[in-house]
Amino acid sequence: MKQKCRYNIRLAEKKGVTVRAWDDIDGFYKMIQITGGRDGFGVHSLEYYRRAYEVFHPTGCVSLLVAEFENKPLAALMVFFRRKRAWYIYGASNDEERNRMPTYLLQWEAMRWSKSHGCEEYDLWGYLTKMKHARIAIRKSQ
What we know:
Strands 1-2-3-4-5-6 form a six-stranded mixed β-sheet. The longest helix has 15 residues, at 25-39. With 142 residues, it is an alpha+beta fold. The radius of gyration is 15 Å and the shape is globular. It has four helices and six strands; from the N terminus they run H-E-H-H-E-E-E-H-E-E.
């Protein structure tokens, strides 16, 4: 993890951002519509996200996490896992309080959630970087 990323995680904490489990699929959907409009990507229907969550949540293989400031949702993501790998599949953020870096802390907490479920890899899936495969090994020292 690059130094700037670690800095932004700590900055989010200092600026009062918190992350917790969430079950507000409607809230997530509103946020992902904002993200899709801002970043120019397609968004599935509300029912699609609801079904993905409802199918996997009873098995414990998915978590919907939200980053908040003063109890106001700023960003959210759905992380799935199977065996020793977790996948960041869907992420969203609104246009408010972006200077608080909520997405950095949110991804960090998703990695920690993944590790707590025995995962050794956190796959960024659709996030393209200079690497051939965008995935991060979760070190045992974290």
